[in-house]
Design a protein that fits this description.
By secondary structure, this protein is α/β, with parallel strands linked by helices. A hairpin with a 2-residue loop joins strand 10 and strand 11. Helix 1 packs parallel to helix 13 and helix 5 crosses helix 13. The longest helix has 17 residues. The chain is globular. The model has no long low-confidence stretch (mean pLDDT 97).
Amino acid sequence: MEFDYVIIGGGSAGCVLAARLSEAAGTSVCLIEAGGEGRGFLVRAPAMVAAMISGRPKINNWALWSTPQQALNGRRVFQPRGRGLGGSSAINAMLYIRGHPSDYDAWAQAGAEGWDWNSVLPWFRRAEGNVRGASGFHGADGPLQVADQRRPAAITHAFIEACSENRIAANDDFNGPEQDGAGLFQVTQFHSGPQKGQRCSAAAGYVHPLASRSNLTVLTRARAERLTLEDGRATGVVIRRRGRQNHIRARREVILSAGTFGSPQLLMLSGIGPADELRAHGLDVAHELPGVGQNLQDHLDYIISYTSLRPDVVGLNPAGLVRLLRAGMDWRHSGEGLFASPMAEGCAFLRSAPGLSVPDLQLHFVIGIVDEHMRNIHFSNGYSCHVCLLRPHSRGSVGLGSRHPAAPPRIDPAYLSDPRDLPVLMQGARMMEAIMESPALAPWRGQRLYPHDGSDKAREADIRARADTIYHPVGTCRMGHDDMAVTDPQLRLRGLDGLRVVDASVMPTLIGGNTNAPTIMIAERAAELIRMA
């Protein structure tokens, strides 16, 4: 089979590219995805993220693991990533956050010209179908539906009040003029029509409506095994589908959108990357590119949870399960209620110290007990709060676990390897604890899980024992001009023709917030760059 464009990976970026590049009727596009179609009930019902995120069983989830993390007591850290059309946008909490404008200005200043805030804002707006309508900051007509939460829990409003009790102002739009403050997340969710209340994954927004588009071919359950190269040019990809190998050829470009872990892995399996890494696995070096797999960054996250004195939160006890069942029936009829909740309903952006120019901490307030990605189940009613370090200095890497394409990559986030990170996360933990112990939350406050004596020594020990990812890995194919850059600012692979990388791996540095919306923005802009080539 041969197409003009072959896109590898049907996640947030790949879905956008497939939809946008196939808008030209005379252009043929093939989208290749290792997982399924991303249409099932567990994906569509927002609350069912709890059934997918744990990886027990592996439903729409690659369920990867890190290498042992020295700074986290040698623990291997679970790394959920979406598998299926929509990618991680099909298993995330739907939180619509863009980051801070200064993040993008920093990209441009570091050599990624054309990715400053004023240049990327139109592409955020192009993607967005915001229920609040169009404005200077927001778009109303884009495929990605962005909704306000219809019935946030009473405890979430109490969390916002608790932030106010700690001199944190309210903010009703974290993607507007100011990021600081506390409020409700907007979510990527259908806000009208027959899909009202359902998750708007990148697949649901961009690809599922295009079933009749004849110039778009979508191959699901097709695993990419290696890229094909001829005379310094990428010409296609070898896939395995239904037990058979097939070669999919690209007349114009191959576009790699397999994500921060998958994109560098496929490059290395194809002989593209650090020579020592390739040779260690018995692979020939087709194109040496030392930055492939380097520069891995992620938001390290620390959670505290409480049992609840009131039943109006999520619980897995008998009464809580009955409430969930009723909520499911409510959602099927109205598109609203507990089943429509992202669970992580409340947000706050904080500064760890006065005088900082931007927030460096983010809180996620959850209306249930969250413990190790729902892998540790608690049957009590409860609630949780996360704090994550928005701009870590620590840098890790992705390598090959094996030369076999089905083997998982070697993931080493190197959490807290830079000594500058722990003090900021410690301060974030203190600030979060003060909010969670504030009067506004007293009617709900039961027993704290994993309590400690309040000392910094005990707090640090708890962080090292339980801190974890909040699912925002980026940077392993970063754009730039220096020798360690993998792509140029047009996202073309350096030194090879006919190949681009378009996903979160191209981010030079982490943005100050959740990464799904920025990944979709990158793909929107990339589609235009590709069309203009």
